[in-house]
Amino acid sequence: MGRRTTRAVAGLAATALVLSACGRGDEQADGQTGAEVAPGAATGTITVWAMGAEGEKLPALAKQFEAANPGAKVEVTAIPWDSAHSKFTSAIAAGQTPDAAMVGTTWMGEFADMGALDPTPPSIDKSVFFEGAQSTTEVDGTSFGIPWYVETRLLYYRTDLATKAGYETPPTDWQGLKEMAKAMQTKAGAKWGIGLQAGGTGSWQSLLPFAWSNGVELTKDGGAAYNFDSPQMLETLEYYGSFFSEGIADKAAPVQPTTEPDFASGRVPMFISGPWMMSAVEKVGGPGFADKYDVMPMPTKVTSSSFVGGSNFVVFKNTDNRDTAWKFVQWLADPAVQVTWYQQSTDLPSVASAWEDPALRADTKLATFGEQLKTAQAPPTFATWEQVITALDMEVEKVARSGADPAAALKAAQASADSIGTGR
Question: What does the similarity note say (predicted)?
């Protein structure tokens, strides 16, 4: 994920850090069952793990929490993404987890099913978060932690080439998108009309925004099973596959696409990605390139929806300082802190009201991401999601690269999902 701006911000008042003063019941005194957190300022030391660039930047933010809570100390350990999952599972098995941590949204079901996560206290208002982001914290109806930061996916498109293709405004529906992509080839000279992932790891993140926009439900039987072979998903995969079969998207595209140079040169004038790609394409495109492209919401079939990603922040059950761990997590959800974190990291706020800040509203492209987040959705928090989705990625690849029958592909993906199960 691209990182653009680092900016120092003054510490916040201690009153923003204190949870509402609802005392714990005696039967919940062990702090393991979603009990309320004691009132007052945070005290004592907590250990925190965070991954990647977030792990490197979080210590500076945590100092503001310490400044507002002089009796508290936050010890942050930065962990590489590629080793994070195994480090967490080993720590859970050994009972040596940190007090709190940044956790990938697709890991929530697995870690909750291992009994490692502490349920969110009642005083944390779940309604302040984008609905799709909040859903990533919920496993079997129980919320664990908060959505810390979010991202969603939009269609990037070259406005200058769109004008050549006859489009002053972008299309809003499925048919319009395909027509514009084709016109980018026939009228604007693009090699490919749109860049879509032709299978491989993570291709589900390109397919599912179309699926959710077509009303696809990824679970059935009251949320108890996977649901990959519905009529709506079939219609979606047929549409997605048609871009490749009709020569609008490259069926031989590499798994690691050269998105930025292809977009800057006009070879591939449209693609789907998250907000971090703005700085990436502008760097490659050079001065003035920001004026040659824009972003648009996912086109509508039944609605307009997209994938909501990001990371959550959780408290582990075996914490030795539960109160301070939760006070730190709640502090991270304060709208002003969320804006501060955006300014330091470019991670987008999960709290909807934070988007009213001028720091975010001033960028019209960024504001479009904020609008899409209102309807963005997340995959189910089943413990087996990362196993199951591998099969769907493989089937998408067969359709995109080899023209396989979408119905057969989804039947195979469903059979694999049924065989693996949900982990519940």
Answer: Belongs to the bacterial solute-binding protein 1 family.
Query: Taking the model in full, what pTM does it have?
Result: 0.85
pLDDT digits (tens, 9 = 90+) for 120-151: 999 999 999 999 999 999 998 999 999 999 99
Shared fold status for 14-152+308-373 and 154-307+381-420: yes
171 closest CA partner among 150, 152, 194, 190: 194
Q: Which residues is 149 bridged to in the sheet?
A: 311, 349
pLDDT of residue 63: 98
Residues of the chain below pLDDT 70: 1-33
Q: Using the structure block, give the residue that is written with the tokens 């030795």.
A: 320
Supply 39's token pair: 């009132």
Summarised one tens digit per residue, pLDDT across range 22-67 is 332 333 333 334 789 999 999 999 999 999 999 999 999 999 999 9
Q: Phi and psi for 73 in degrees, rounded to 5?
A: -140, 135
Task: Return the pLDDT at 223.
Answer: 87
Instruction: Give φ, ψ of 224 to 5 degrees.
Output: -95, -10
> What is the per-residue pLDDT for 15?
30
Residue ranges covered by each domain of the chain: 14-152+308-373, 154-307+381-420
The dotted CATH code for 14-152+308-373 is 3.40.190.10
CB 268 within 8 Å of CB 192:
yes
What string of DSSP letters covers 26-75? GGGTTS-SSPPPPSS---EEEEEEEEHHHHHHHHHHHHHHHHHSTTEEEE
Please check whether the domain covering 154-307+381-420 is classified as CATH 3.30.1490.100: no
Tokens 């730190």, located at residue: 328
Instruction: Tell me how far apart the alpha carbons of residues 214 and 227 are, in angstroms, rounded to a whole number.
Output: 14
Q: What are phi and psi of 364, to 5 degrees?
A: -65, -35
Q: From 279, 284, 307, 132, select the one nearest 213 (Cα to Cα).
A: 307
Contact assessment for residue 390 and residue 241, using Cβ atoms and an 8 Å cutoff: no
